């Protein structure tokens, strides 16, 4: 079905749960929270998807996306454990992990448009206006989302600073 090999199904079904997990964390916390149950599950499913892409990739860019996803996952989950970065660590963590969600959705949308409906896909050419428009839409969503996340983190930082000043002054 859909021209997907057995290892392709492992790749697809292994990474698929990362999508609702990311949506849940973005909706609930405004970002991917690595030190939460959903964050740990996201890491596992993303690693399954990113690692298996090397077994199913047909386009050279897929290898780049897989390697970048793994690097960003490692950086995003590790950076929060470095104490010397202060608030910058939270910003970098948020940016890195949001980029992993973008790198998950980019090939997901591309593959859906290239495979559905089965036998008569919506897109047959990688330069199709529909595909390029969908990819551009994801890029806009990334830029808007990252901007909103950074603004939210800045506000949280200001509120925390104001509360600590109020406690120390009182």
Write the layout of secondary structure elements.
Layout: H1 6-15, H2 18-29, H3 37-56, H4 60-79, H5 87-115, H6 129-169
Helix pairs in contact: 1-3, 2-3, 3-4, 4-5, 5-6
What does this structure look like?
It is elongated and about 70 Å long. Helices cover 78% and strands 0% of the residues. The N and C termini lie far apart (67 Å).
* Class per helix and strand makeup: mainly alpha
Q: Unreliable stretches, pLDDT < 50, 5 or more residues?
A: none
**Molecular shape:** elongated
Largest sheet: none
User: Any idea what the radius of gyration is?
Assistant: 18 Å
How many beta strands in the DSSP annotation?
Answer: 0
Mean pLDDT metric:
94
Task: State the helicity in percent bands.
Answer: over 70%
Would you list the SSEs in sequence order as H and E? HHHHHH
Share of residues in strands = under 5%
Distance between the termini: 67 Å
Oligomer: single chain
Gist of the model:
The protein is mainly α and 170 residues long. The chain has 6 helices and no strands.
Can you give keywords for this protein?
170 residues; mainly alpha
């Amino acid at each position: 079905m859909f021209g997907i090999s057995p290892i392709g199904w492992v790749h697809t079904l292994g990474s698929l749960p990362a999508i609702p997990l990311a949506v849940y964390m973005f909706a609930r916390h405004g970002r991917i929270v690595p030190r939460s149950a959903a964050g740990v599950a996201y890491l596992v499913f993303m690693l399954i998807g990113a690692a298996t892409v090397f077994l199913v990739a047909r386009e050279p860019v897929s290898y780049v996306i897989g390697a970048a996803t793994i690097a960003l996952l490692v950086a995003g989950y590790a950076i929060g454990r470095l104490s010397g970065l202060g608030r910058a660590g939270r910003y970098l963590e948020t940016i890195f992990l949001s980029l992993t969600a973008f790198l998950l959705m980019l090939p997901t949308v591309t593959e859906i448009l290239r495979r559905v409906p089965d036998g008569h896909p919506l897109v047959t050419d990688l330069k199709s206006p529909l595909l390029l428009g969908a990819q551009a839409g994801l890029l806009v969503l990334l830029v808007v989302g990252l901007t909103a996340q950074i603004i939210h983190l800045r506000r949280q930082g200001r509120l925390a600073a104001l509360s600590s000043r109020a406690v120390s002054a009182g």
